[in-house]
Amino acid sequence: MPSSPSLVPGPPPASEPGHRDRRADLVVVLAAVALACWVTSGMWWGPNTRAITVNSSDQALFEWLLAFGGHALTHGGNPFFTDLINVPDGVNLAVNTSITAYAVVFAPLTYLIGPPATFLVILTLNLAATAVAWYWLLSRYLVGSRLAAGVGALFIAYCPAMVSHANAHLNWTAGWLVPLLIWGVFRLRRPGRAIRGGIVLGVLVAVAFSIAAEGLFFTALALAFFLLVRTVHPARRAQARADLLPFLRGLGVTALVAGVLLAYPLWLHFAGPQRFHGTGFDPMIHSEDIAAFGSYPRRSLAGWAGLGTSLAPNPTEENSFFGIPLLLLAAGCFAFLWTRADRAFRATLTALGLTAVVFAVLSWGPRAKWNGRRTDQLLPFGVLDNLPVINAALPSRLALVVAPVIGLLLAYTIDGLRARPPRPRWTGPVWVLAFVAALLPLLPTPLLTSVREPIPDFITSGTWQRYVSPDGVLTPVPTTVDLYPDGQRWQAYALAHQQRTFRIPAGFFLGPGGPDGRGRIGPVPRSFSALMDQAGRTGLVPIITDGSIREALADLHYWRVETVVLADRVHGAKFDVDEEAVRRTATALLGPPERVDDVWLWRVPPG
């Protein structure tokens, strides 16, 4: 194996004639766009009326974030803190996934076509751009074969984890940031590039933080570990010493630029109001099952054939699920490359292999789990979980680092096979069959989508403005949380289409109030929201006493609610809501409702 393929940007490797390169580039870009549209095809039939079935609550959240960010931009608001939800405390968006960069860049589109359609555009572009960005990095800096670059890039962009997170995660599908960050880091080693390279990387870091802070953290960890292993390898020590000073200078400039751009959101993140430590998710639940690495994902050709499993904590977190054939192929690629590599490239292979193994083990979480059965075996993440910042990460997502490593091994192997065909000749078809057997079952299938309840005419027509004072508070019932996202969907519509909006209590966000001072999803429940949730879930009207009425009114006054609204059809993210039971419960607490447009409405008496 020649020493030229490495994770160090330099002059493009020798390749085929230019016009063939351009044609290959076009083919890969078209394939990336076609696959992105294929995966999201269920949404394109009705961008404003359809929702991702398994994660409609996150979709509603990101739609709200797009609408809120655009509103903050056009009205001079704070994009990192809001009092529009979780009245009266507000929400610290700097410790949430605020996707501020997307909200600002796509604000004109949000106002033009609405938050749901803009959400779909960004999701589709994320997938396609991830493939294109990885193809650019591979074809321009790492391999000489466009075919090798295309296979590696398309695998990384449409691997099981990316397709899984396409279930409404605009942050994790922004995988195009990773190759740009890799390029920016390795560019720092070039003499004379400290200032220019540091500025570029600092801006990239700021953008990545605003879109996917957790993803930025994982990328930084993986790159730091990779560089450490590669640097201490005997074949790289001399070059590492020569590169160290310009690299450190560039990192200094990067830290300065990113620090200036992120000073306020970082302060909010670590010291601002409504901050918290840890996360609202249980790391024991959100850890990767060891058996999942050899299993197939549900949204794949293998899953369509009935070979998929349910070993992930939920359908959006299939962060490994490579299948045994791909694991065997990756091991074969590593062995093939090792036998051909010179000492310098073996340093890169060693770093890649150790990075994949370490992050795979960390993704198993605090305690080992095999095929759904938890063991008492303490794992490395169980020791690290108490460290700051790390305790805010979901361990299963650390497996996301493994897919790019496999993609690189695939690309390097194809590049090596094309540069020096193996002997004897029959081994060539064997390699082709191995790639087909490993990758064909992982071809993605479209995301599951379904029609969701429309936003009531009461909201879209602006009738609500007659019942809520300027900056006043309205609440749908059940009150807005991740399981009942209607409040933020309605508010997103008002933010994007109307001159003013209402505020709501509660909401879908991460905030303080969890056990041991950790975060939690949404606010701490109060009596009114608990009664409405019980009615909506069970279809049974709770026993209402004079004490229940007093507590419910106290809650509504605490939230400063003026109007309570029940739509004819409530969108429940995980289950069907019994609207009749909710209406009867609200009537028992607040008296008979008014019928206004297509909603039931209760006016809250002043406290």
Which range does the strand content fall in? 5-15%
C-alpha end-to-end distance:
78 Å
Averaged pLDDT: 92
- Radius of gyration over alpha carbons? 26 Å
Specify the helix fraction band: 40-55%
Total of helices: 22
Structural class: alpha+beta
The shape, in one word, is elongated
Give the strand order of the largest sheet, numbering strands 1, 2, ... along the chain: 7-10-12-11
Number of strands: 12
Question: Secondary structure elements and their pairing?
Answer:
Blueprint: H1 18-39, H2 41-44, E1 50-52, H3 56-75, E2 81-82, E3 91-92, H4 100-105, H5 107-113, H6 115-142, H7 146-157, H8 160-165, H9 177-187, H10 194-232, H11 237-271, H12 301-304, H13 324-340, H14 343-363, E4 367-370, E5 373-378, H15 380-384, H16 402-419, H17 427-439, E6 449-451, H18 457-460, E7 473-476, H19 486-497, E8 510-512, E9 519-521, H20 527-538, H21 546-559, E10 561-567, H22 579-590, E11 594-596, E12 599-603
Parallel strand pairs: 7-10
Antiparallel strand pairs: 1-6, 2-3, 4-5, 8-9, 10-12, 11-12
Helix pairs in contact: 1-6, 1-7, 3-5, 3-6, 3-19, 5-6, 6-7, 6-9, 7-16, 9-10, 10-11, 10-14, 13-16, 13-17, 14-16, 20-22
Provide structural commentary.
The structure is a single chain. The protein has helices at residues 18-39, 41-44, 56-75, 100-105, 107-113, 115-142, 146-157, 160-165, 177-187, 194-232, 237-271, 301-304, 324-340, 343-363, 380-384, 402-419, 427-439, 457-460, 486-497, 527-538, 546-559, 579-590, and strands spanning 50-52, 81-82, 91-92, 367-370, 373-378, 449-451, 473-476, 510-512, 519-521, 561-567, 594-596, 599-603. By secondary structure, it is an alpha+beta fold. It has two domains: 24-48 and 114-442, no CATH class; 457-603, no CATH class. The strands form five sheets. It has a four-stranded mixed β-sheet with strand order 7-10-12-11. It has a two-stranded antiparallel sheet with strand order 1-6. The chain has a two-stranded antiparallel ribbon with strand order 2-3. Strand 4 and strand 5 (373-378) form a beta hairpin. Helix 1 (18-39) runs antiparallel to helix 6 (115-142), helix 3 runs parallel beside helix 19 (486-497) and helix 13 (324-340) runs antiparallel to helix 17. The chain starts with 17 loop residues before the first helix and ends with a strand. Mean pLDDT is 92; it is low at 1-6 and 8-12.
